TrEMBL record:
Cofactors, names only: Zn(2+)
Subcellular location field: Membrane
Pathway participation: Lipid metabolism; sphingolipid metabolism; Sphingolipid metabolism
InterPro entries: ACER
Pfam families from the UniProt entry: Ceramidase
Binding positions (Zn(2+)): 240, 244
Family: Belongs to the alkaline ceramidase family.
Entry protein name: Alkaline ceramidase
Membrane topology: Multi-pass membrane protein
GO MF entries: metal ion binding; N-acylsphingosine amidohydrolase activity
Length: 298
């Protein structure tokens, strides 16, 4: 049932207040009068975005545009506009800050290594900021056979796939919510293959931590998506925010794991040393690698 919303004094030419309606996957309350308040006249905004609604009820018809107000097809479990009139899902929005911090930080920390190994590492960090892919940077032994172990061909394949998937996610945003997991399929396969091959305790430790963080992240995502009703019953619907945090910290651990694996195949003459930012002695830190020079043979 829609209830009238008081938007305060209005200019004489403006229409009356619009109702607040429930909609979305989680059936949250959306304050449809919010953008009208910013414009000072509800009628102007609604003539652009919605059909006129009868007082006391009705439904809002979204304009067929991905840029329209509340046009997203994906609605996570967190209540909308509960903590701010400007942000729909407050905790989901601000938990994204970890993506913007850890991506550039890893680019800075891995700079000496990238100078010696491959500047594609910068691409990995930049792509992570925009929910990216690790695909460009992989050992040759895991390339598909049809690219003949050619890194330029593999890079083109990844770029084309990324462009197509990005286009599809814009046309159909729901695909993006599930399609991102296809990126992790080959990474999980490679990680398990290397875990069983290696006897390096440090590499095994990083793989274990990466997998644990990734499983926690996926569990939060799935639970938020499919058990939303349960979490709303106990007033705890922030699991998608936890997904952002866990997957953000999976990134540096998995990146170090990939660097250690890559060094075995591509730089056998080099020794990698793992460090932690800000200090190696701190109980918690962001891992990264540095080159320690040539390995000495006996």
């Amino acid at each position: 049932m829609c209830q009238p919303r008081n938007l305060g004094p209005r200019p004489p030419h403006c229409t009356a207040g619009r109702p607040v309606c429930k909609r979305g996957a989680a059936q949250q309350v959306f304050p449809l009068g919010l953008p009208a308040r910013a414009l000072g006249c509800p009628g102007v905004w609604y003539r652009l975005l919605c059909r006129a609604q009868p007082e006391g009820g009705g439904h809002c018809t979204r304009m067929p545009s991905i840029f329209a107000y509340q046009s997203s097809e994906v609605d996570w479990c967190e209540s909308n506009f509960q903590h701010s009139e400007l942000v729909a899902e407050f905790f989901n929005t601000f938990s994204n800050v970890f993506f913007f911090i850890l991506g550039p930080l890893m680019m800075f920390l891995m700079h000496p290594y990238a100078q010696r190994r491959s500047r594609y590492i910068y691409c990995v960090c930049v792509l992570f900021v925009v929910i990216g892919s690790y695909s460009i940077w992989m050992p040759h032994c895991y390339f598909p056979a049809f690219v003949a172990k050619s890194r330029p061909q593999f890079t083109c394949l990844v770029v084309v796939s990324a462009v197509i998937s990005t286009f599809l996610s814009v046309v159909r945003p729901t695909l993006n919510a599930y399609g991102l997991y296809t990126v992790s399929v080959h990474i999980v396969y490679m990680v398990f293959q290397e875990y069983h091959k290696t006897s390096d305790r440090e590499l095994r430790h990083f793989i274990e931590v990466s997998v644990v963080l990734w499983v926690l992240a996926v569990s939060c995502w799935v639970s938020d998506r499919f058990l939303c009703g349960f979490w709303q019953e106990i007033n705890f619907f922030y699991l998608h925010s936890f997904w952002h945090v866990f997957i953000s910290f999976t990134f540096p651990y998995l990146m170090v794991s990939m660097a250690l694996v890559d060094a075995r195949y591509e730089m056998p003459e080099q020794t990698l040393k793992v460090h932690y930012w800000p200090r190696d002695t701190w109980p918690l830190g962001v891992p990264y690698v540095e080159l320690q020079g040539d390995r000495k043979s006996c």
